[in-house]
């Protein structure tokens, strides 16, 4: 049931409850613990090589972060990610990332276009190897770097806050429906606009890219 979880390294210099919390949180964000999967304290404690107390404390903390649902007589289970959650997040991303590409051009982000292009090549390689975890990793790094090029610390902070739900979204998206050729082409369209200093084209490119994601994810939820 929890065979994807590894025994915790008790030598880490952190409170045990924090180590268990981080381990379970990472497992949820990476899809090792799936939406609606029951979290059984005894089995989790045995799998992680700890007592039930830090597991119980970790589950309560995960509930506060919205990653776990606890119900009377039913126990704890991994929270689902709803269509509304994803659409709300993509709408916020559109506002942040279209502003980010504008600022990136104003602040000479073109100097780091090579980094973006290399990440896109790594994304394409991961797609050809059917490595979903790496696809998630490189897609995340591409969008984070675009926001970083804005040079706006608040914008970067807001984007960081969205990354957890986006990681869960990307796992659904890359596992169930996506057109990698379109994603790669749309990424390159945004890069080219930043390189040439064309703000309008960059904003339109990012808007179009995120609209593609919204349309595709709508298909996933209709199918399910």
TrEMBL record:
Keywords: DNA-binding, Transcription, Transcription regulation
MF-aspect GO terms: DNA-binding transcription factor activity; sequence-specific DNA binding
InterPro entries xref list: AsnC-type_HTH_dom, GntR_C, TF_FadR/GntR_C, Tscrpt_reg_HTH_GntR, WH-like_DNA-bd_sf, WH_DNA-bd_sf
Tagged with keyword Membrane: no
SMART domains listed in its UniProt record: FCD, HTH_GNTR
Protein name per its UniProtKB record: DNA-binding transcriptional regulator, GntR family
UniProt lineage: Bacteria, Bacillati, Bacillota, Tissierellia, Dethiosulfatibacter
PANTHER family: GLUCONATE OPERON TRANSCRIPTIONAL REPRESSOR, TRANSCRIPTIONAL REGULATOR, GNTR FAMILY
Species, as recorded: Dethiosulfatibacter aminovorans DSM 17477
Domain HTH gntR-type: 14-81
The UniProt record lists the keyword Endoplasmic reticulum: no
